[in-house]
Design goal:
The chain has 224 residues and is α+β, with helices and mostly antiparallel strands. It is built from 9 helices and 5 strands; from the N terminus they run E-H-E-E-E-E-H-H-H-H-H-H-H-H. It folds into 2 domains: 5-143, no CATH class; 180-223, no CATH class. The chain is elongated.
Length: 224
């Protein structure tokens, strides 16, 4: 079975399983609900193996990994009775596909651009003539989308750096808290400076007017 998750779509479901021992014991048919996963593989017409959801998929570093653990997001959707969707870019985003071609691909269990771009060998051959062109178009779409995403991300980083630089320049340009001993004596302003320091933990910057000092003290009192 394919290990490329781009080609695989798990579908979890409850299946009624016949409990032979309980049926014999009770003398009537007994069924139990069992969580199962149907593994749909892109390009496979008639092959969709079904496994118990909590059966071991494989061992990783000596630890048993179940199918439910392999696909935790899809399993969570199943438990929450949500629609189970294929992870990736929906075929609806591929504008070069007609609606008829999308339906055809979905009939072959190909639900995403990533799955179409990952097809190879016999799984690609089922698309028939023109299949490799569709694969190449899907691959080009994904690469272009990734490039646009990286460009947008880089632009955002540049803007963030510009903002940080502007803040740094503003902080460097701001006057340091004034030393009261270096300012002209003014009892009214000195009292306001001391009051502001008690409220804010530092003297006000520069040498603001008495009116400004009073406003700053009032704002500090309101915020206290």
């Amino acid at each position: 079975m394919q290990d490329n998750d781009s080609l695989v779509v798990p579908f979890f479901k409850n299946v009624a399983m016949h409990d032979e021992q309980a049926s014999k014991r009770e003398g009537r048919p007994i069924y139990r609900d069992m969580e199962m996963v149907e593994v749909r593989i892109a390009g496979e017409r008639n092959f969709a193996p079904v496994f118990p959801a909590h059966a071991m998929w494989r061992r990783v570093d000596g630890e048993e990994i179940t199918y439910a653990q392999r696909w935790p997001k899809q399993y969570a959707r199943f438990q929450e009775n949500q629609i189970q969707i294929a992870e990736g870019t929906p075929l609806s985003e591929l504008t070069f596909l007609t609606e008829a071609k999308r339906k055809e691909l979905q009939g072959l269990k190909i639900y995403t651009a990533e799955a179409l771009a990952s097809l190879d060998g016999k799984n690609l051959a089922v698309l028939g003539q023109g299949g490799r062109v569709l694969k190449s178009q899907a691959d080009a779409f994904l690469k272009e989308s990734k490039g646009v995403s990286q460009t947008v991300s880089l632009a955002a980083e540049v803007e963030d750096l510009k903002a940080q630089l502007a803040a740094l320049k503003a902080a460097q340009a701001a006057p340091e808290p004034a030393n009261p001993d270096a300012l002209p004596a003014d009892p009214a302003k000195d009292a306001l400076r001391e009051q502001y320091k008690e409220l804010r933990g530092a003297y006000p910057r520069g040498n603001p007017s008495a009116e400004t000092l009073q406003r700053m003290v009032d704002e500090a009192l309101a915020a206290a």
